[in-house]
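Database export, one record per block. Field names are fixed; values are copied verbatim from the stored entry.
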Amino acid sequence: MKSLMVILYMFFGSLAVELPTIRAYFVLAKDSQSITEKLYNELAAYSQNDPVVLAYKGASQILKARLLKDRSAKKALVVQGIQLLERSVEAAPEEVEIRLVRLAIQEHAPKILKYNGHMAEDKRMILANFATQPTVVRTIISQYAAQSKYFTAGEQAKLAE
């Protein structure tokens, strides 16, 4: 019985997603193919319903797609990622972290995708709700805004406080 429990823990425990790890990978993924691969692989088997994790999973698919050579595979993965990210927003429309993930993806999405329709809405929500977010989310927002071309200097200063 003990060995069965150990086997089950090893199998299901390995499927557990650590949100702090996912956040760290996401922050670094745009500048690193290996981190993008780690983020994608970490979330590929995730099948639970946490909207925040699903938003990161959708983002990981979009980021992974840029590494693919085959155009049809690239397009399919981008479409899948966008759908997952949008479902996450629908499931938790007031979740600021999801809005940040979507804003980051939309800001850096190739123009040909025309995936930029919610940037102003997401930015407004982030600015309006920044102060009420957990410290870890505020830190991610501050770091993102500091390097983003979409936030003004005044907004960056407000988010750095």
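Remark 1: Residues 18-160 form one domain.
Remark 2: Residues 99 and 122 are 5 Å apart (CA to CA).
End of record.
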